[in-house]
Amino acid sequence: MSLPEKQWAQVVEKKGGPPVYKEIPVPKPAADEILVKIRYTGVCHTDLHAMNGDWPLPLKMPLVGGHEGAGIVVAKGDLVKEFEIGDQAGIKWINGTDLSCEFCQQAEEPLCPNAQLSGYTVDGTFQQYAIGKAAIASKIPEGVALDAVAPILCAGLTVYKGLKESGARPGQTVAIVGAGGGLGSLAQQYAKAMGLRVVAIDGGDEKKAMCDSLGAEAYIDFFTSKDVVADVKAATPEGLGAHAVLLLAVSEKPFQQATEYVRSRGTIVAIGLPQGAFLKASVFNTVVRMINIKGSYVGTRQDAVEAIDFFARGLIKAPYKIAPLKDLPKIFEMMQQGKIAGRYVLDVPQ
Ligand code: 8ID
Ligand code: ZN
């Protein structure tokens, strides 16, 4: 197959953006890499953090963002055995790792100190052709729709992992903070598929309608609630609080509130990454109520296999909207204002 020399991409040329839609060269895969012709790519709030340089991590510049890329393998290096040309493949946030450090040896590759991050330290999927290490890229089974599966590659994977990390068991209640966003909408679906009950927390009527349709048992509106803590507790069995809390919001306050409505013996999982934020908890309450507070970061290759499998079996149906790749700046603006219910998926020109 002959590949073009040039392609369309959204390129962030300076910290703070905006992304510029322009032509750039098509990259060539190294011996252990695949080149994926991207069909659809989701827009994660992480891409906005990346453009703004919010985090204490060195950032590639100029940068092609994006890390929920689903497409077709069109070229591969000589060492690649995992994929054939024509296979459906997904490029995730973790683009490649050294596969030899202690964490990789223990199948905890997101913790690899030499990990390459799609759309942060290497160019990501807001372009027609993107590169991934074959050992880390995800297989997407034949017949799985590439638009709907794109958000599973980061949002779905991350919340599935977070729910597993919470230790919540079927029948127990999980409070999802930021339930109306990209991660939150998928978290509700994975929670339901795993037999959990959902209390959704977010703001506004559009997100309420979405959470109701996804099967949340209660919706607490943080714009209008006079006492979020009391309202969350009231929505849980016997008013004793949520067995688990998934913190997905891009705001510090809920990270400081969650210990007040988590159930005794419950687990708080921090996943959202608000800039410069800190967790704060009463030591007394943490001790005498035996509260567990932990972080969760994307997921391993095997977590991705499982998250995609839930999706492929038809258990995960979260709403998403499709927009052309050239509309990325508009989507970032809406995201900044908290105006997106669910996820946006970009349609990449073919
Ligand atoms: O591996 C990880 N830990 C990981 C993976 C992927 C994404 C972490 N993230 C991070 C992103 O970088 C981002 O910081 O998770 C966060 C959420 O990503 P997202 O779901 O893609 O963002 P979104 O679609 O904008 O949704 C955020 C929601 O939070 C709500 C907003 O209304 C929005 O619906 N929210 C906010 I901001 N403040 C809230 C509050 N006080 C709140 N919801 C409830 N209470
Ligand atoms: Zn992401």
From TrEMBL:
UniProt-listed InterPro entries: ADH-like_C, ADH-like_N, ADH_Zn_CS, ER, GroES-like_sf, NAD(P)-bd_dom_sf
SUPFAM superfamilies attached to this UniProt entry: GroES-like, NAD(P)-binding Rossmann-fold domains
Record keywords, A-Z: Metal-binding, NAD, Oxidoreductase, Zinc
GO cellular component: cytoplasm
Pfam families in UniProt: ADH_N, ADH_zinc_N
Cofactor: Zn(2+)
Gene Ontology molecular-function annotations: alcohol dehydrogenase (NAD+) activity; zinc ion binding
Top-tier EC class: oxidoreductase
Coiled coil: none
Domain of life of the native organism: Eukaryota
Occurrences of domain Enoyl reductase (ER) (ranges): 16-346
PROSITE patterns with a match to the protein in the record: ADH_ZINC (PS00059)
EC number: 1.1.1.1
Record PANTHER family: ALCOHOL DEHYDROGENASE 1-RELATED (PTHR42940)
Family: Belongs to the zinc-containing alcohol dehydrogenase family.
Stated name of the protein: alcohol dehydrogenase
Gene from which the chain derives: ADH1_3
